[in-house]
Amino acid sequence: MNIGQAAKASGVSAKMIRHYESVGLLPPASRSDAGYRQYGDKDVRTLQFIRRSRDLGFSIEEIRGLVGLWQDRTRPSREVKALARQHLDFLDRKLAELQSMKYALAHLVSCCHGDERPDCPILENLAGERT
Amino acid sequence: MNIGQAAKASGVSAKMIRHYESVGLLPPASRSDAGYRQYGDKDVRTLQFIRRSRDLGFSIEEIRGLVGLWQDRTRPSREVKALARQHLDFLDRKLAELQSMKYALAHLVSCCHGDERPDCPILENLAGERT
DNA sequence: CCTTGACCTTCCCACTGTTGGAAGCTCCAT
DNA sequence: ATGGAGCTTCCAACAGTGGGAAGGTCAAGG
Question: Is B124 contained in some domain?
């Protein structure tokens, strides 16, 4: 299977497959006589694992850890759970950050009449004048 | 006022002040005889405006627009509100994305017993096995 | 056999925003 | 005059992804 096929089958772009290989997240793929990367079902499964991990927002480094644990049949699930919890905390912090941005901005937007007049509470707030 | 003073006064690092100038978000600062950038109260107010905008998650390009509108005394507040709404939509999309990640991952974490045993619903899910 | 188009290769660059560092200059106080 | 803090510019890195150029390969069809 060439890289394009593996990309379609896994949902990871060919660009990213090469990138993951270059950063060592994937072992170097075997090559055809012409130098084309060759993939098998096992590789596609690994790529899908990576894609699902990315869909959950895990970083490359975290995924490196997850793949390692995945391939170690004797890992304690405790370790996996710890890694997942850590990422969950990260998501919570990000969510809180975005949510406070959202509420602050939503308030300002609701205060702005949004017509042809130039006075605008949004700009006034950004400029530091208390609204 | 040197760049370090302006940085302290505005809450924007000296590094970032130079960067904002280099990308044209700030006009080139005037220079002392020795080539040091000189800032006044007006510049500090602009920097604070930029910092508050970044605190709300606006991108550099969006801030470029906001600063332009801010400095145009005759802008209709409609335009500011449109820009803000657009960013609000962006925040909503990001929030929804993170939230779905969070719920999916939280579910998996709650399913994993997290002890010394190797079987783990988190890895099984990432591997594509239905849980 | 040759051409064409789709696919592959490597390499470099772009983007988001921010930080760090190196080499060298300036300013101020001791 | 010397040291340290602060300034200058330039270059690189981070994460992750996409775009593109220049060139090799493969299969189909004339």
Answer: yes
